[in-house]
Amino acid sequence: MSEELLPGTTPEGGQVATVVEDPLGDPGLPPHEHRPTDVDPRAERRAERQISLLFVLSMLATIAFIAVYVGVPKDRIEYVFPLGDVGLQNLLLGVTLGLALFFIGAGAVHWARTLMADEELVDERHPAAADEETRAATIAAFQVGAKESGMGRRGLLRNTLIGAVALVPLSGVVLLRDLGPLPERKLRSTVWEPGKLIISENTNEPIRPEDIIRGSLVFGKPEGIDGTEEHPNHERLNELAKASILLVRLSPEEIKSRQELEWSHEGIVAFSKICTHVGCPVGLYEQQTHHLLCPCHQSTFDLSDDGRVIFGPASRSLPQLRIQVNSEGYLEAAQDFAEPVGPSFWERG
């Protein structure tokens, strides 16, 4: 090739500028196309009604969820193609809750794509740490976005969105009912009553005062209740768990509380076997100090002083059972516990 015709030269020997295109250059943004809602007021109002309808559908789906939970029996089985036999309540709960959440999401997306600002912005990269100017710009952008969203002037959209979002959490509140039956006042009392014999858990025989020797620990239960494997009725087991007691013989002069002394018989005291922390059975007895230790979290109770807590996480004393001796010489309850047994929640609830 002749040198006169090399790139960058002319036949007369002059220099020309060589233009090289960058294959990775920024192509820029295509021309902006306005949405129908940006230029047509009727389309804007139509989109607003559509979004509001989605939020209203979410509210109706939430109400349907609650109605299904209350009205459809949980053990009802129906054949649903192609799923086969399914629990009707579970199926309808899933469908209604899914629709409630879907309609809120669909309404929010439709709102953003049709009514919120449609400007294309280019933001240069900046350091990760935000300075004061950036934070101020963020707050300003948020305020502009809040204004452009129309929350202030689009009352229908705002109110239906608030209604849909406010109703959806009710689904979770209703599901709390599945945590179990309400305790009502069943945990505030036991089967102990005046004249009910105290039965030894070891011998299943009534207990006489002379059966309890000093320094020993005897576990007792109410007469007429059986929690053995031959009688697995869960209601009986629940009652037995609440009514289980332990008996200890102390010297009357060792008992520090007047009430504890009055509720005892010849130094024999009866306390609930259930720890007031989280309900573990207590049974580690130290006869020299009259301290009773819970093996779960080391709560320690003083049986010579109203079962008072002297160490550990338990927050209240062990409830004492008032006892007496009947005409046949057997120990029996003089009354039920004066306070709820077990964890302190039930006392405060």
UniProtKB/TrEMBL annotation:
Main localization of the protein described in the UniProt heading: membrane
Residue ranges crossing the lipid bilayer per the database entry: 51-71, 91-112, 156-176
Cited InterPro entries: QcrA_N, Rieske_2Fe-2S, Rieske_2Fe-2S_sf, Rieske_Fe-S_prot, Rieske_Fe-S_prot_C
GO molecular function per UniProt: 2 iron, 2 sulfur cluster binding; metal ion binding; monooxygenase activity; oxidoreductase activity, acting on paired donors, with incorporation or reduction of molecular oxygen
Named cofactor requirement(s): [2Fe-2S] cluster
One GO cellular component term: plasma membrane
Region listing for Disordered, in residue ranges: 1-43
Biased composition (Basic and acidic residues): 31-43
Topology term for the membrane: Multi-pass membrane protein
UniProt-annotated location(s): Cell membrane
Record's keyword terms, sorted: 2Fe-2S, Cell membrane, Disulfide bond, Electron transport, Iron, Iron-sulfur, Membrane, Metal-binding, Oxidoreductase, Respiratory chain, Transmembrane, Transmembrane helix, Transport
Domain (Rieske): residue spans on this chain: 237-332
Biological role stated in the UniProt entry: Iron-sulfur subunit of the cytochrome bc1 complex, an essential component of the respiratory electron transport chain required for ATP synthesis. The bc1 complex catalyzes the oxidation of menaquinol and the reduction of cytochrome c in the respiratory chain. The bc1 complex operates through a Q-cycle mechanism that couples electron transfer to generation of the proton gradient that drives ATP synthesis.
Family: Belongs to the Rieske iron-sulfur protein family.
Protein name according to UniProt: Cytochrome bc1 complex Rieske iron-sulfur subunit
Organism: Allostreptomyces psammosilenae
